[in-house]
Design a protein that fits this description.
The protein has helices at about 15-20, 50-55, 60-75, 95-100, 200-205, 245-260, 300-305, 320-325; strands at about 25-35, 80-85, 115-120, 155-160, 170, 215-220, 225-230, 285-290, 345-350, 355-360, 385-390. The protein is of the alpha+beta class. The chain has a single domain, classed as Deoxyribonuclease I, Chain A, CATH 3.60.10.10. The strands form two sheets. The chain has a six-stranded mixed beta sheet. It is globular and about 60 Å long. It starts with 16 loop residues before the first helix and ends with a strand. This is Endonuclease/exonuclease/phosphatase family protein. InterPro entries: Endo/exonu/phosph_ase_sf, Endo/exonuclease/phosphatase. It holds the Pfam family Exo_endo_phos.
Length: about 400
């Protein structure tokens, strides 16, 4: 079956059957889907974590239906979802999304299935026991959680795969302490009064990752692909201390050190006690990194170092006609991945092991019939699905 393309940079509706069956061309994607509890409550209502399971209780929620249709149209082989609430029981989130949405045809599209998935715990909403925003009380949630969240698991992550996941070899870094990163930007963080924002006692306990960092090996035709997944905190919603901006930078820097390996990654340890960085050269960094080299409020040296790393392949940038139309005033509009106008979401392949075939952002132009899927935030998300086709080479 040949691929049907709407535009040169737009999403392909079906992958060629031969590419999937041979496992030579892999479509890798990331999508911040806004499937967290706060998206399903009224204004001024505090979510509790029960909202996503309730929204998934049937198969006709409009926003979730559109998200499923987008995924069915793009048809990624490996897909990271950001802002998909974490529940330890897959029956409360992952499985109903698979069974009631992805495995059911939407608007005439072909249903899609993912035999393998991984979802682990995250730091969002986990009580730190400390007053991290210095408002005089340790509230337990929100800004005083290890990662901003109103309940444990909010803004979680989920990886889907058509190929087997090597679960025993997964490395997670949820518990890694920020202080243990050499040269971290936390140590000298000071408020407007000139005092250390975090006391030495607090610095001893803070975790680096606002959600988590995952290294998930996926087995493709006997070869291993390391999917490096994360969702760094937005570099805003703070004060002159720039605690979120500094954290965003260091969360991104973590991957730069990790893929470098050797002495530069010697400080890294995972949640099982393993140490060091990535041992293989074939990887792909995916996620909503909340940073751009050209725009926005992030400390740009973090994302610049990652994208410019010697082991990262540069060249073809995912783009869309919808992004171009959304910000016609911006030179970078075609590569934007969020409705508010920035490249925030990334699929970053390694230089080794791949040949980049194609890439795009699912963002239909204003006159496209599929515009209904992204017409407003409530249609699906304020982010767009980003995909890249990678040909596996030895």
């Amino acid at each position: 079956m040949s691929r049907l393309c709407i535009t040169l940079v737009f999403v392909a509706l079906l992958m060629p059957v031969g590419a999937h069956s041979e496992g030579r061309v892999i479509r890798v994607a990331t999508f911040n889907v806004s499937m967290e509890g706060g998206n399903y409550v009224g204004k001024g209502v505090t979510p509790s974590g029960h909202e996503l399971p309730a929204a998934l209780s049937n198969s006709d929620h409009p926003q979730i239906s559109n998200i499923a249709e987008i995924i069915q149209r793009v048809r990624p082989d490996i897909l990271l979802l950001n802002e998909f609430d974490y529940h330890a029981d897959p029956a409360r989130g992952v499985k109903p999304f698979l069974e009631r949405y992805l495995q059911q045809s939407r608007a005439g599209t072909t249903a899609i299935d993912y035999p393998y998935f991984y979802q682990g715990p995250v730091n969002t909403g986990v009580d730190s026991g400390m007053d991290l925003d210095r408002d005089g009380k340790a509230s337990g949630t929100g800004n005083d959680a290890f990662g901003f969240g109103l309940y444990p698991g909010q803004y979680g992550m989920l990886l889907f795969s058509r190929y087997p996941i090597d679960f025993e070899a997964i490395r997670s870094f949820q518990l890694f302490k920020w202080k243990d990163m050499p040269g971290n930007l936390m140590a000298d963080m000071r408020g407007a009064d000139g005092e250390l924002w975090y006391s030495n006692e607090i610095q001893e306990q803070l975790r680096l990752s606002s959600k988590s960092h995952w290294d998930i090996p996926v087995r493709i035709n006997g070869k291993s692909l390391h999917v490096l997944a994360s969702h760094p905190t937005p570099p805003v919603f703070d004060g002159p201390e720039d605690r979120n901006g500094r954290r965003n930078h260091d969360e991104i820097r973590f991957w730069t050190d990790y893929i470098e390996g050797g002495d530069q990654a010697a400080y890294i340890y995972d949640d099982k006690g393993g140490s060091g960085g990535l041992q293989d050269n074939r990887f792909v960094v995916v996620g909503d990194l909340n940073a751009s080299m050209e725009e926005g409020d992030a400390r740009r040296e973090g994302i610049t170092a990652l994208l410019g790393h010697a082991k990262v392949r540069r060249g073809l940038l995912p783009s869309s006609d919808g992004g171009r139309a959304n910000r016609a005033d911006s030179t970078f509009g075609p590569t934007h991945t969020a409705s508010w106008g920035m490249r925030a979401d990334y699929v970053i392949p390694s230089k080794a092991g791949w040949r980049v075939i194609d890439a795009g952002v699912f963002w239909p132009a204003p006159d496209d019939p599929l515009r209904r899927l992204v017409n407003k935030r409530g249609s699906s998300s304020d982010h767009r699905l980003v995909w890249m086709d990678l040909e596996l080479i030895d």
